[in-house]
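Board notes (copied after class):
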Amino acid sequence: MHAEFWQARWANNEIGFHSPQVNPYLQRYWPALGLAQGAQVLVPLCGKSVDLAWLAGQGFAVVGVELAQCAVEDFFREHGLDPQITQDGVFQVYRAGAVTFYCGDFFALESRHIAQCAAVYDRAALIALPEAMRERYVTHLAALLPGGAQTLLVSLDYDQAQMAGPPFAVNDEDVQRLFARHGQVDLLECCDVLADNAKFVQRGLKRLDERVYRLTRR
């Protein structure tokens, strides 16, 4: 989606995609990645997700990338953090403790910004992008990551004809096509979650699956 779309969503507080709870898949599968304490973790298109605070609390150096300045400021305020704010090229950079936010366009992120990156957590980035933008996202992400870097990816799958995104439907075939050329793709779990998401039932969905993947960069 265009930057103006997301800026408007945040400005109007239309953030139904934000969850106040730590993602259960993150808690369940993150330890299995076997990352060293202090490892750098990238969270693209992160909003003000509480998952970043959870990752920092587990001892990781967390780097979030978010377009909406109000989302970044909300994160630090809601967690009682007073960030140091600097400028790095096109990014306004917020730092406090183990958390760093690059406020700006993800596609402007460079390898030097995440030179020590060992892992990526993507719960809301891939599914926020329409099909035409996903290839660009995955290609840019792959170019940033060093070999051996791992990604924990959570995707949603439903009949796209029944609902306009975002979030968009990204099925298993899509994930394999986008990521297999860059490394190994392992499906960890597939769960029918329609009964737990009344808002999607109201929007007309008859099926809603969540899939969790572990991706390993070659």
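Comment from the instructor: The longest strand covers residues 183-192. The mean pLDDT is 94.
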